[in-house]
Amino acid sequence: MNGTNVSNTILERLAGELTELTPEARKAATYVLENPRDVGVSTVREIAQAANVKPNTVVRMARQVGFEGYEDFRAPFRDAIRQGAADFPDRARWLQDIRKTGDLGGLYADMVQGALRNIEETFGNISADDLKAAAEDIWTSDSVFTLGVGVNNSSASNFTYLASTGMTRFYAIPKAGSNPIDDLAWADKNDVLIAITCRPYRTEVVEAVQTARAQGMKIVAISDSPASPIIQSATHGFVISCDTPQFFPSSVSTVALLETLLSFVIAVASDEIPKRVATFHKRRHALGLYHAEGK
């Protein structure tokens, strides 16, 4: 179905009715069968224009296969995109269509529901024991490298920043002007790599994980599928849910998981760590880095 997860039943029904349609409706049906992704992001006029038929011909085609009209026919295709089963350009077009129809309230609700669902699905499949095991490897390591590129770069950097308020030897990679494999050049079995990537998987992250594994490093992998190449190579693999109505993968569950993982690291760490965090922030207050209330 060219990248969507719309039920095959609809397209099979349309294909089965093809010979029963008028020549014009058959043209519309043929276009839909060959371009199913277009349905979810196109109006009836846009589909009609692409198929070189009149809009009412598209409506008749939809009714022929059991729908009240084009909007009902289009709904399952839109739902597929809403659930993330489409490429980035298609999902961007879907958002534009939402704007044109004025259904931004629906988009708002979808975004909120999607974020909550991602959190629930992510943590529903992860146990405290899983997090504790990863946290212990992180705490007992010599160095921790956190790798995220593209949309995941800020998540990796934020994790490293927070960890560095109480611990040393945490590094966000790739460093400016470098690449992940070079940044891991001298890492070994005493070190940990935390790697993050979701579909479409970034080549540099996959290759860095392979390199880290060859060097004996422990791998904490965060990705969106048990079949992800970095999960397959991981010492500790965490599968997140990142579905979203928008066209980039959601970072909500990634950030939540990293924050939770860091809290487990602190929990298994020595008693000095909370004191170091307190000292770090006390010094910041003394230096005037925090705005004083009342000024």
UniProtKB/TrEMBL annotation:
Species of provenance: Falsiruegeria litorea
Domain SIS as annotated: residue spans: 134-272
Sorted UniProt keywords: DNA-binding, Transcription, Transcription regulation
Transcription regulation listed as a keyword: yes
Name of the featured protein: MurR/RpiR family transcriptional regulator
Taxonomic classification: Bacteria, Pseudomonadati, Pseudomonadota, Alphaproteobacteria, Rhodobacterales
Entries under InterPro entries matching the protein: Homeodomain-like_sf, HTH_RpiR, RpiR-like, RpiR-like_SIS, SIS_dom, SIS_dom_sf, WH-like_DNA-bd_sf
Span of domain HTH rpiR-type: 8-84
Residues in the signal sequence: none
